[in-house]
Prior knowledge:
By secondary structure, the protein is an alpha/beta fold. The protein is about 40% helix and about 15% strand.
Amino acid sequence: MKPNERQERLLRRTFIDFLQNSEVIEDALIFERAKGLYYWDVQGKRYFDAIGGIFAASLGHGHPRVMEAMRTQMERMTFAPPLHGISDVALDFIEKLGSVTPGNLNYVKAFSGGSEANEAAMKFTRQYWRQTGHPGKYKFISRYYGYHGGTFGGMAASGTGTRKTKFEPQLPGFLKVFPPTFYRDRFATWEEANRFAAHAVEDVIVAEDPSTVAGVLVEPIGNTGGIITPTEEYFRIIRDACTRHDVMLIFDEVITGFGKTGNMFAAQTFGVTPDMMCCGKGLSTGAVPMGAMVAREDMAGPFFGPVESDVQFAHGHTFAGNPLACAVGCAVIDEMVEKRLPEKARRLGEYLAARLEKLKRYGVVREVRGRGILRGVELAKENNAREPFPALGRALKKTAVANGLIMRVDPTWFAVAPALISEEADIDEMCDLIEQALEAALAVCKG
């Protein structure tokens, strides 16, 4: 829609994430309300939310249980002073989250989002090594095409190219390896490409000297690279390397966590337990800003001691462990456990994948990938071809919105992750909209 004079004036006073305002002002999308699987803009047009806002609305918008938890907590307390103590509901959240995490990952700190959680995890890891007799372990290995947040530490760990170069030089001590998709055309099978990419992680650990490497930080399924979905063996190889070289394995589960992949966490989906996990987005179904850092319980030991030892974690945020957010997090976890929503994601994911595979009849799909209801479609000039089709992606980004569909569109791929309240009929509605948008985008490219 073309914004009115007031809206345009105000749009010029802010920015929309990763979008050029000149384009936004020409065709602004201004939302007014949301419910369930849908958004409505200020003109009353309805949009199917195929991506949970941005992988966040895991239970859809305005979920009754979450809304009731918010109302109840708002009457009790919405803020607790973090320099003096902790709220009772924050303790409830720590217990609740620790009950669904894999292994002994139940040392929990709540934050305001995924970026904060990743930042905290890296600082926690460095301080942990310093206080356990390994002060030289400070480097982090992550992947090109990965994304770990908008803070300077998260950005340094990210491998997002031009998003980073505007702010360089980056923080020191961050190293990159390529994800398995980078090698897939150089090997006969996807499994071989994954083995090579996984062993490359150990190669870097060894080449850098393990006594200087603090951690390996990876997304189990890489979003900004196009829903990169490695093999289970890939993670087993990296887990083994980290264990042998005394390096922390940190999973960034900000996108993959809370049911999307068919288990509560992707660590369970891939059968590998990291030393730490970072959470966000779906943890609060987008209702309030929330994230969490989760570590092995034994890692808490080096941070516990007499006051004069000064070994406590030297980190904090004003809204970390906010009572309102913790109440929401508890409600989300309860709903997912009681309704067995991760299992539902597994079933719905198979149905969704089959529907997306049918897009190959348009002749412009190289691959459909992902796990559970987190799925991505790579666009190509011809089915199964190596040549990408960025013009189609750019057109699809516009035609999707024009057809009432909100999804993640990159020039060479698109992704969906519908809320776990979806049923097969909703998946059909979403996929029908995808087909309409794709047909319109192809018409633009041909015209």
